[in-house]
Write a structure and sequence with these properties.
With about 400 residues, this protein is an alpha+beta fold. It contains 17 helices and 14 strands.
């Protein structure tokens, strides 16, 4: 990628939503980090930040870098959003403060820990089946199968129609990019998928003991309206599936392609938790989010105007050599805390305890039973405007 440095700001003509970029983003991340603290992306007329410090600072300064104009390329103040905006993701204080408080409580590590036994039992049962099978698709049979069982169960939605959950997430995460081919393909069956999702968001559709109905208990306590509670269930169903599916798939890929790291983990099961943070740093399932400026701001001597879109490369921050030693090495012993995959600041991932619980259950079960993974064919990528992960991961496992 060539970056023009002869002007008052680094300028690039790269399209970060092209197949070429999404298929192998890392050389482009490096070029953007080296170009400066902020780069102008000509094709979209947006700013980009790829260094750890600037990404972190922007995420922390919600008053300058707002979410209410959308956290994708589209500016909700200039064009109508494809769905009613999320009242937590695409909101600023004071609305965000109120909705966030409810989900922070429901998804707190202590509240989520009660799911540990169930998540572990389901993971053990699934891994037992896959060990028996020996060869399987790491995406369909594991990275998708597991979250699609335990997360909707935990939220408390019906078994019927769960095949709509992945397509909905695919719509949501592609919608943060431009209206390109990936967006159009994801939206092909949008009507029925959206209808199913919305039908699962009402009080009446939720089991009496799940995470979903707990949101409606906040209505009874006067914290939310009934409609707002439904919108927050929609947030669960938007953010809770594809993110963890891509994350578990990336973890399988990291261990299959770095077998010595799997050996280290097997010999030190206390590393299971930290190794997932390293997966999130090294192959971030969520690559980017946008913010929109609320006022002019100076970033390393470059002036960004008011109302401008800023693309934050979480995945590039995660490999910034200014922040990490040997950033392109997957090392399960590393202290990967401080990665930007969950974001940070007031919008930092509210569901991260659930994501970590899923990964600990799966990789805890695998560490007990699996000596090594082997790829039996070429993994294929599933391209998405926001997410990075796989379509298929043909795996063979060697049982302990
Ligand atoms: C939401 C939502 C959707 C996608 C992602 C997300 C990463 C939230 O609808 O609130 O957080």
């Amino acid at each position: 990628m060539s970056i023009d440095m002869t002007v008052d700001r680094p300028v690039s003509t790269i399209d970060p939503f092209s197949h070429g970029f999404l298929g192998d983003p890392y050389p482009h991340h490096e070029a953007m980090r080296e170009a400066g603290p902020v780069v102008w992306l000509e094709p979209y007329g947006i700013w980009a930040m790829a260094r750890h410090q600037e990404v972190r600072d922007a995420l922390t300064d919600w008053e300058t870098y707002c979410s209410g104009a959308g956290v994708g390329l589209s500016d909700f103040r200039k064009e109508p959003p494809w769905r009613p905006p999320s009242i937590i993701l695409e909101a600023d204080p004071p609305l965000h403060t109120r909705t966030r408080a409810v989900l922070t409580r429901i998804l707190s590590p202590a509240a989520i820990n009660v799911l540990r036994e169930t998540f572990a039992r389901e993971a053990d049962a699934l891994i037992d089946r896959l060990v028996e099978q020996r060869e399987f698709d790491g995406v369909a049979d594991l990275a998708e199968a597991y979250p699609l069982k335990v997360f909707p169960d935990a939220v408390g939605i019906s078994e019927q129609g769960r095949e709509n959950l992945m397509p909905y997430g695919t719509m949501v995460f592609n919608s943060f990019g431009p209206r390109n081919d990936l967006f159009d393909k994801a939206m092909a069956n949008a009507g029925p998928v959206r209808e199913w999702i919305m039908s699962k968001c009402s009080r009446a559709a939720l089991a009496p003991d799940g995470l979903g109905i707990k949101i409606f208990h906040a209505v009874d306590a006067g914290e939310l309206s009934e409609d707002e509670a439904g919108m927050l269930v929609r947030s669960f169903l938007s953010a809770g599936i594809d993110t963890t599916v891509y994350g578990l798939g990336n973890a399988l890929y990291c261990f299959a392609s770095n077998p010595e790291q799997w050996t280290v983990l097997r010999e030190n099961p206390n590393l299971v938790r930290g190794s997932f943070e390293e997966v999130l740093r090294f192959e971030s399932p969520v690559q980017t989010f946008f913010r929109t400026t609320t006022k002019p701001v100076d970033v390393g001597g470059v002036r960004i105007g008011d109302g401008e879109k800023v693309l934050l490369f979480l995945a590039a921050a995660n490999r910034d050599p200014r922040r990490w030693e040997r950033p392109d090495t997957f090392d399960v012993r590393r202290r990967a805390a401080g990665h930007m995959t969950f974001g940070t600041g007031i919008h930092g991932c509210v569901g991260q305890a659930v994501a970590r619980l899923e990964s600990e259950a799966i990789f805890g079960a695998l560490a007990k039973r699996v000596v090594s993974f082997e790829l039996t064919g070429q993994p294929e990528r599933r391209l998405n405007n926001t997410l990075r992960g796989f379509d298929t991961l043909p795996l063979r496992i060697k049982a302990a």
